[in-house]
Structures are given as structure tokens and as C-alpha cells.
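Input (structure):
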């Protein structure tokens, strides 16, 4: 159902460097690069994740209660991406670990404060 998700940024190039490095570890590549938007995907017909300068040219702000969850293959990959994000300047929003019986999650806030979660289903 989801085609793509965008989060706002106030510095497109700084955010692009962060996400190029981070999302490459998921096998993601740039789908498009425009003047005000960059998007990545793991496959041409899979949902994409992108960053954008707000269309209204106002400052990008984080959404209270908003989060983007990125599916990963394993708890190990969730931990690795969480650690890499922190190395790239993100902040910890929730240590990697199980959440209930069904999920393994690792939460960060990117350089603009957007909340992301690397998650996988636990079987």
C-alpha cells in the first residue's frame, strides 16, 4: 500500500550524506535526485524512502508521534544500522531489542530529529 515516505530536512546535502551511508547497508540506492528531494529504494517496485526540503519553503520540523519504520532482515542488521546511524550523528531514541513477542526494533532520530525505527518480525 505505501509507495513512498518523505521526511523533511533543512539541509538536503547533509541529510543526503547521512542517508547515502546509512541506507547503503540495507542495499538501498538512490531512486531519484531532484533539486528539493532525494529518494532511495531497495528495488524499483518497492516502497521508497526520501528526504525533502518542505514545499512551502518553511523550516522542516519533526512530527510529534510520527515515525518511519524500515524493515530489515534480522536483529543483527537492526543493531548494525542503529550503531551506524549513531556513528553518523543520529541520536538514540530506543536501544535495539525485542518489543513484545513479535518485533525486534531499534530507534533513532536522524540529523533533523525525524524518528526512524529499524525493525524485523521475530519468529
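Output (sequence):
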Amino acid at each position: 500500500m505505501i509507495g513512498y515516505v518523505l521526511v523533511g530536512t533543512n539541509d538536503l546535502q547533509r541529510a543526503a550524506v547521512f542517508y547515502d551511508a546509512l541506507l547503503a547497508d540495507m542495499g538501498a540506492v538512490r531512486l531519484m535526485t531532484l533539486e528539493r528531494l532525494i529518494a532511495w529504494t531497495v528495488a524499483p517496485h518497492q516502497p521508497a524512502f526520501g528526504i525533502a526540503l518542505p514545499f512551502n519553503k518553511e523550516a522542516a520540523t519533526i512530527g510529534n508521534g510520527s515515525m518511519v519504520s524500515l524493515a530489515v532482515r534480522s536483529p543483527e542488521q537492526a543493531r548494525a544500522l542503529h550503531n551506524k546511524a549513531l556513528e553518523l550523528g543520529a541520536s538514540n531514541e530506543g536501544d535495539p531489542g525485542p518489543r513484545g513477542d513479535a518485533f525486534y526494533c531499534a530507534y533513532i532520530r536522524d540529523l533533523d530529529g525525524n524518528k526512524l525505527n529499524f525493525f524485523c518480525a521475530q519468529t
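Notes: The first strand starts at residue 4 and ends at 8. The chain has two helices and eight strands.
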